Amino acid sequence: MRAIGVIRKSRRERVSREEFEELLRSAGYEILAIVEQVREEHPRFNIGPGKLEEIKELVRELNPDKVVFANRLTPSQAYNLWKELRVDIIDKWQLVLEIFEKRAHSKEAKLQVELANLQYELPLVKEAIRRIKMGDRAGFKGMGEYQVHQYFKHIRYRMGKIKDELEKIRSEREIRRKKREEEGFVLVALAGYTNAGKSTLLNALSGDYVEAKNQMFTTLSTTTRRFRVRGKMLLVTDTVGFIDGLPPFIVEAFHSTLEEIVKADIIVLVLDASEPWREVRRKFFASLDVLRELKALDRPMIIALNKIDLVSEEDVQEKELLLRELLDGRTNAIGIAKISAKHKKLEELYELIDRALTKLPKFQTFEIKVKDPSKLGKILAMLHSMGEVLEVSYGNETRIRAYIQTGLIRELNKLGVKLRRIN
Asked: In 362-422, which ranges are E strands?
């Protein structure tokens, strides 16, 4: 597939040419040309009429399969552009959905992508119906009037079916989440811009393997694994990557996946330290926008500056200082960890997670009395697996002081031990 890319920049819209080109390549397009314009949005064509004439000439000369706009197009603009250029017109978000389709493997991811596609198409079909009523026979995807109306009904019906199926999956996930809550597990969610290295970090923390590639949107489904921080057993979840200006219809379609961030006890916001500061800053604010939309900014947060192995120590320190200035009052941030997930340099991250745990109600210090020595080994193993044993005093009655997850209380009571919370 061959494409001409179009970028319109203005004060209101942040557009990165590098990211746009990476999106095009990730979707499998050969980039024939990139046309840029600096101006405010034109109501009919998004770009100015003069730039439209320039693109017409390029279309005649290069014969692309599509013209792809880095800006969001209204349904009316998409139709006006199609009538002028007579070639398929898509915008950045349709391009993102094409990438999603290539990456979706699980049933949930495929349903979420289909829902997002249908939500994107719905206003386009409405625009086609409006134009047909006005006497404009532009149609939609080559359909006639009757077919467009039938397709509109099909979209509404299919969206309802998908939402029902996703709700069932969400309910099953909620049951698993409640079980984890009862057991006292702490959930750490990895969030951040696409291709920041979240999946690589999940692998480094858990010692497991999930697909991690140097490409955009490798992860579309949540993946949860166990890992330890200084003796404490935790859960870590990888989530779908963010992108600048993530529109509501994608957030809504992927809500059941993104809600893992909302339900997390700790959020690790992963940033790519190897990028220029302007990109780190842009992606930091884009990530905050999504977290704000999810109402997750009140969660304890750790900023992980990843890929420090690719840049100098001085560069990393400078970005850390600049980030500290940006963090002031914007988040419930605990600190910044400089890490390399690829090389498993995670000491600063472990330290900050451990510090965050002390502020969570799920971890508390108890004195545990064990009378039956035959159960002592099992009890100590349980405490080590889900907490930290601070002190053991042996005698007629063994006394253990331990910092444990409160979910263990029920299991310990079953073993006949006495527990006393220590403030």
From this structure: 363-370, 387-393, 398-405, 418-422
363-422 folds as Alpha-Beta Plaits (3.30.70)
CATH superfamily of 2-102: GTPase HflX, N-terminal domain (3.40.50.11060)
State whether residue 340 is helix, strand or coil: strand
Known binding-site residue numbers: 192-199, 217-221, 238-241, 306-309, 340-342
Averaged pLDDT, 46-55: 94
SS3 105: coil
Q: Give the residues across from 226 on adjacent strands.
A: 235
Out of 3.90.550.10, 3.40.50.300, 3.10.450.540, 3.40.50.11540, which CATH number does the structure's domain 185-357 have? 3.40.50.300
User: Which residues are annotated binding-site positions for Mg(2+)?
Assistant: 199, 219
- CATH topology match: 2-102 vs 185-357: yes
CA 281 to chain centre: 17
pLDDT at 201: 94
What is the distance between the alpha carbons of residues 279 and 273, in angstroms, rounded to a whole number?
9
pLDDT, tens only, 145-160: 667 778 888 889 999 9
Q: What is the pTM of this model?
A: 0.76
Binding residues for GTP: 192-199, 217-221, 238-241, 306-309, 340-342
pLDDT of residue 216: 61
Alpha-carbon distance of 197 to 193, in angstroms, equals 9
80 residue type, one letter: N
Sorted by where each begins, the domain ranges of the chain are 2-102, 104-165, 185-357, 363-422
